[in-house]
Amino acid sequence: MRDTFEVQVRVPEPAATVWGRLIDLDSHSAAIPLTRVTPAGESMREGLRFVGETGLGPLHFSDRMVVRRADSPSGDHPGHLVVEKFGPVAGRVEATVEQVPTGTLVIWRQSLRPAWLPPALRPLGAVVARLAYGVGLQRIVR
User: Fold this and answer.
1) What pLDDT, on a 0 to 100 scale, did the predictor assign at position 56?
2) At a CB cut-off of 8 Å and minimum separation 6, what does 63 contact?
């Protein structure tokens, strides 16, 4: 899809440690500039609803999300996280956390459908989002 992007991050730590950081909502608040994720102190689990409030001064938006799947990594089985996004930036996140010989590989795939961005400009939006999410994801899992 033209509105989908992928980010891969390698971390020299065990998959269980990286998974814990990825599903911790406070880690997302700390890593993503101008964003606060609520409820604070929670970890993503199937059925959890949460909100990312992003803004600066009077300009802000609420990104509502729900966790559809949260299977932690174990043994040879990678962890899988699926989050659906509703509101002004609809879409879906599918992330895997896999133990590899050098540590952990995180693959983050996301579709974005911002209501305010014309469909013809969504490929450009995906490029910008890939860069921003790449930085954010590295901060979250390291």
Assistant:
1) 83
2) 51, 52, 53, 54, 85, 87, 88, 89
